[in-house]
Design brief:
Elements (H helix, E strand, L loop, with lengths): L2 H4 L1 E2 L4 E2 L2 E8 L8 H17 L3 E8 L2 E7 L6 H19 L14 E10 L4 H9 L6
Antiparallel strand pairs: 1-2, 3-5, 3-6, 4-5
Helix pairs in contact: 2-3
InterPro entries: Transposase_17 (IPR002686), Transposase_17_sf (IPR036515)
Protein name: Putative transposase
Organism: Micromonospora inositola
Length: about 140
Amino acid sequence: MTELENVRTGRHCVFVLHTHLVFVTKFRHTVFTDRHLVRLEEIMRAVCADFECELVEFNGESEHVHLLVNFPPKVAISKLVNSLKGVSSRRMRQEFPDLVRHYYRANRLWSASYFAGSVGGAPLTDLRQYIEQQNRPG
């Protein structure tokens, strides 16, 4: 897939925005089996769709998950994260009673913290050089 195929358009913008998100379980306890991870992906894919985002890639282990999300500029990453964690925690508790023992204080499955990193595009050094080389109005 070429870079141009990844370009999305909005009403007043053209964009390619991706973020890498990592969520860990409360106290990093081992919680998830393969069947839990399959359902988590389905839930998180639906939440992303509600935000007009695309869950490009999902994977995880027993105590954390990784998401690669393509998102429009109108989406605040913090709001997306809150919804992903909140909805997935609630749905997993409802659908998998065996997980209830992992919900500590305030019935939370996930740690309050998370990782979010920007992904793709040119390296910062290339961008700085490009901007420096732009003509300034005289």
